[in-house]
Amino acid sequence: MISIDLVYKTVLALANSDIRGNSKPSEIRLFLNNVINEIYEEYFSEINRMLNRQNKGLIGRGIENIPDRIREKLNHFLVENEPLVYQDEHFLLPSDLRFFESVFYNEVEVENTKSNSEFNLIKKIATKQYPIYNKSANQIKIAPSAIIDKVNINYLRNPKVPKWTYFVVNGAEVFNPSAPDFQDIDLHPSEESNVILKTLQKLGINLKEQDLQQITMNKENIEFNQENAN
């Protein structure tokens, strides 16, 4: 997770100026959610691109193994061995499912069929040792029909919606992490700078990571000097 308060206040501080005027907090919160989903989707195209480069020998497989780093970021969303509920001859899929990975019955992997017609064609020969499934919308059907429990799924979930919660004091918003609907930014911690930069871009401010690091360093130095002066 990434501290939403840190990101929110950093973006707010960099976005608001005498020249640009003030960005609305509600605008920043909306952009944050969009940025999180954009970063998530980029992982898949990026990992394919990096695997192609790795196969061509353009990047290494040691500490600089970029595909493994992207997989680590994706594993933040990995849910394993989630039990499925059986209802009306189907197993209901989790509401937060984003990408399907694999299905297991009693630790036996259930084979996917490409279409409903293929499922109906071979379901008669499916067994508990060699089960099959077909996915449709938010549910799956498994053959043989005797399988009604002990089915688990591995999947990548949706990011949780970020929520910078607050209460108002003298007309000002004050951060309140104790609120029941509070939610930090649901990404790998290494994405902190990326989230800030992409959110600023949506507000019309284009910075590079080096610029952000320098601004952050200057801000910390100012705060340090102020504390020492006191």
What key phrases describe this protein's structure?
2 domains; elongated; 5-stranded mixed β-sheet; 11 strands; 4-stranded antiparallel β-sheet; alpha+beta; 230 residues
Polypeptide structure, described:
The protein has 230 residues and is α+β, with helices and mostly antiparallel strands. The protein has two domains: 4-74 and 184-208, no CATH class; 79-157, no CATH class. 40% of the residues lie in helices and 22% in strands. The protein has six helices and eleven strands. It has helices spanning 4-15, 25-55, 66-75, 116-122, 192-202, 209-229; strands spanning 78-83, 85-87, 90-92, 97-105, 108-109, 111-112, 132-136, 139-143, 151-157, 166-169, 172-175. It has a five-stranded mixed sheet with strand order 2-3-8-7-6, with no helix packed on it. Strands 1-9-4-5 form a four-stranded antiparallel sheet, with no helix packed on it. Strand 2 and strand 3 form a beta hairpin. Helix 1 (4-15) packs parallel to helix 5 (192-202). The longest helix is centred in the N-terminal third of the chain and has 31 residues, at 25-55. The model is unreliable at 220-227 (pLDDT under 50).
- Category by helix and strand content: alpha+beta
Q: What's the domain count?
A: 2
Low-confidence parts lasting 5 or more residues at pLDDT below 50? 220-227
Please state how the strands of the largest beta sheet are arranged side by side.
2-3-8-7-6
Order of helices and strands: HHHEEEEEEHEEEEEHH
First-to-last CA distance: 34 Å
- Sheet with the most strands? 5 strands, mixed
Please count the beta strands (DSSP E, at least 2 residues each).
11
| Overall pLDDT confidence | 83
Q: What would the principal axes of the Cα set say about the shape? A: elongated
Helix content: 40-55%
What proportion of the residues form beta strands (DSSP E)? 15-25%
Rounded to an integer in angstroms, the radius of gyration calculated over CA atoms is 24 Å
- Number of helices, counting only DSSP H or I runs of 4 residues or more: 6
